[in-house]
């Protein structure tokens, strides 16, 4: 298995580079629920052990991806808030999170929240 790094991927910590590769591989979506950590690792041409080291678990990978995606969303929504009224802002939020392509993120969000609710002592997204 050869690991391919682009010029932009060489910047940042190993965890940040892995996260960038995860986001590139899955776009706005999250890995499907039936996909294992090994399958996710294979998709980004790394090892599951490396993902486990940097993110702790599959739920840690999902939490990190959700956090990064949410951060990007917030930047876009902040622009909308500054350019329009409060009503425009609320509509922008609604449209952002109710698009059909957001379904995997919504599922992933509730999966991670469920894990945190049932195992609060477990680190989900360090």
UniProtKB/TrEMBL annotation:
Q: Which InterPro entries match?
A: Homeodomain-like_sf (IPR009057)
Q: Which SUPFAM superfamilies match?
A: Homeodomain-like (SSF46689)
What is the protein name for this chain? HTH tetR-type domain-containing protein
């Amino acid at each position: 298995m050869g690991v391919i790094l682009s010029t932009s991927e060489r910047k940042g910590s190993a965890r940040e580079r892995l996260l960038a590769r995860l986001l590139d591989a899955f776009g706005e979506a999250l890995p499907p629920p039936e996909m294992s950590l090994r399958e996710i690792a294979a998709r980004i041409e790394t090892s599951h052990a490396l993902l486990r080291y940097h993110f702790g678990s599959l739920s840690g990978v999902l939490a990190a991806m959700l956090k990064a995606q949410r951060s990007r969303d917030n930047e876009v929504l902040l622009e909308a808030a500054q350019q329009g009224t409060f009503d425009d802002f609320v509509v922008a939020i609604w449209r952002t999170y109710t698009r059909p392509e957001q379904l995997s993120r919504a599922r992933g969000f509730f999966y991670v929240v469920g894990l945190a609710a049932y195992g609060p002592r477990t680190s989900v997204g360090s």
